[in-house]
Amino acid sequence: MRSVGSSAHGLRVAARAIAAGQVLAYPTEAVYGLGCDPMNAEAVRRILRIKGRGEDKGLILIAADFSALEPYVTPLGPARMIEIAATWPGPNTWLLPARPRTPRWLTGVHDTLAVRVTRHPIASALCGAWGGALVSTSANLSNQHPARTALRVRLQLDAGPDLILCGACGGDPRPSTIRDGRSGRVLRG
Predict the structure, then answer these.
(1) Residues 149 and 32 sit within 8 Å (Cβ to Cβ)
(2) Which of 56, 69, 114, 151 has its CA 20 to 30 A from that of 83?
(3) Which of 26, 80, 36 is nearest to 59 (CA)?
(4) Of all helices (H) and strands (E), which one includes residue 95?
(5) Cα(75)–Cα(17) distance, integer angstroms
(6) pTM, full prediction
(7) Domain limits, the chain
(8) No. of helices (H) and no. of strands (E), the chain
(9) Contacts of 140 (CB under 8 A, 6+ apart)
(10) What are phi and psi of 180, to 5 degrees?
(11) What is the CATH number of domain 2-136+147-188?
């Protein structure tokens, strides 16, 4: 497990690792996330194995802007999308209808996909360096406390990511709020 800083060089190294099908750990608004290229089935399944998590639950995608998420989800009506867009960038994840071609390894058994435009400067810069959306799930074993530092990622996930992009988490006390895009109902607060 290698580590790099979040400098421009570190971001380029991380983007190359994603392109090579590797799994990364990186800071987000509240905790370290595990991420990879969402269209790389083997990388996504490796994240699920690292966490000890089943494929049926679905995952979250993050991006620096909504345009990177549009290939995966169908936008809702204008009024709903205005409400959703008003919460971004930020720690607000929305379940939006998945496009028919969005892989099951991302949606699980659902017809929606959880998406977020991140406000965390390192996570956002990583998405920008990569050039698209990233899988983002907490860096921890299932049913364990998420890691909030690079050291905790190393200690908890000995069969963990290929690369850790080091930096501070955003300081939010809890992982992102998850809401249903159609109704606005809070599913995780």
Answers:
(1) yes
(2) 56
(3) 36
(4) strand 92-97
(5) 30
(6) 0.94
(7) 2-136+147-188
(8) 6, 11
(9) 31, 51, 146, 147, 156, 157
(10) -75, 125
(11) 3.90.870.10
